[in-house]
Amino acid sequence: MTPELPGYLIVMGASAGGMPALARLVRQLPATLPAAVLVVQHLAPNSSGQHLVERLAAGTGLVCELATHGQLLRAGHLYVAPPDRHLLVHEGTLLVTKGPRENNYRPAADALFRSAAAYYGAAVVGVVLTGMLHDGTAGLEQIKRAGGRAVVQDPLEAEFPSMPESALSNVAVDYTVPLAEMGPLLIRLVSEAPLAPGPIPEDIRLEAAIAERIVGTTEEIDRIGTPAPISCPGCGGSLWQLNEGRVARFRCHTGHAYTLAGLLDDSRRGLEESLWVALRMMEERKNLLSSLTTNSAELGNAPQLERLVEIKRHINRLREFLLNGLDQPLPPELEA
Q1: Residue 236: is its pLDDT beyond 80?
Q2: pLDDT at 230 over 90
Q3: Which end of the chain has fewer surrounding CB within 10 Å, N or C?
C-alpha cells in the first residue's frame, strides 16, 4: 500500500447548519491525516457545490475537491458530494451517481455510510453533524455493524439537533463530543491500527451493490427483507421491510430507501396534498351549488340549500384541520 492510499475513511453527514460546522471541524484536521474524508452536505440541487469546497479549503491543509466519478481515494484529501448526486465508494474509488433518493435525499449520508461500511468495514469512522430529520442514522448503524466507529456531534451545541439526536436514539454511538473536541478525536482514531476486520454482513454488501447499479431485483430484496403492505412513495412500487438492524427501514427494488420515520414524513406530506386537492374540489362544488340556488328557477329548492349548508360546514372543518396541522384527529366525515 502506498502512503497516499488511505488506511481509514472518515465519512461525514450534515444538513441544516452543516456548512459552518464542517468548516470548524476540518480546520482541525492536518494535511498529513492518514485517512480520506468524504462529506455529504445537503445542498440545493441547482447549486454548484464549489462554494462549499472553497469554504472548507480556506481553513484546512487537506486537499478539498468536489468528488468526480471514478476518482481514486487518497489520504489527506477531502471529497464533497456534488449536489443532487450520491457519493459512494467502491474498492478504493469514488462513484458519483444519480441513483434513487434515500429518505428523499440525494446526496444521502445513509448511502455514503453504507458503501463505506461495505468496502472498508472496521476502517471507517462515521460522523453525524447538525441537521434536521434523520439522514445518517441508518448508515451509522451499518458502519457499526461492519465493525467501524460512530461519532456524533453533541446535540446540545448543534444548531439543528435532530440528526444527532436521531443517531443517538437508534445507534450504539462510540463518541458524542462537541466540535471543538472532534478533530483531535478523529486524528487519534485514524492514527491507531484499525480494529480487527470481521465479515461484512451480507445485507450491507447487497444494499451497497444495489445502490451502485441503481436498480436491483425483487429476488435480491427478498434475501434481505419482507414484503410490506405499503407502496413506495418514490416510484409507486412495492416496498420491503429490511430484516437486519435496530433502525426500521424499507426499500424498493429500484433503490428508493426510507427509515420508518422518513416513510411517515412522506406519507404525511402525501396526505396533506390530497386533502388540499379535496378542499379545492369541495370549494368548486360549493360554487356550483351556490349558482344553482341563486338561479330564479331554483329559488326555494330546500334540498339544494341543505346540500349547500352541509358542504360549507365540511369545507370549514377541513380548512381548520389543514391550517392547524395533521396531528389532530380527522373530522369524522373524512375518516375511512
Answers
A1: yes
A2: no
A3: C
203 counts as catalytic: no
Instruction: Give residues with Cβ within 8 angstroms of 154, minimum separation 6.
Output: 164, 176, 177, 178
CATH of the domain at 153: 3.40.50.180
Selected catalytic residue, list 15, 115, 162, 166: 15
pLDDT greater than 90 at residue 293 = no
The predicted pLDDT at position 300 comes to 56
- Name the average pLDDT for the chain: 87
77, 110, 134, 135: which one is catalytic? 135
15 given a catalytic annotation: yes
Q: How far apart are alpha carbons 325 and 304 in whole angstroms?
A: 32
169 tagged catalytic = no
Whether residue 206 lies inside any domain: the answer is: no
Nearest to 22, CA basis, from 88, 71, 67, 81: 81
Of the residues 42, 77, 134, 253, only one is catalytic, namely 42
Is 198 a domain residue?
no
Regarding predicted confidence, which is higher, 74 or 320?
74
C-alpha cell at 318: 377541513
323 and 177 share one domain: no
Model confidence, pTM: 0.79
User: In terms of Cα–Cα distance, which of 163, 140, 167 is closest to 16?
Assistant: 163
Q: Print the domain residue range for 330.
A: 267-334
pLDDT for 1 beyond 50: no
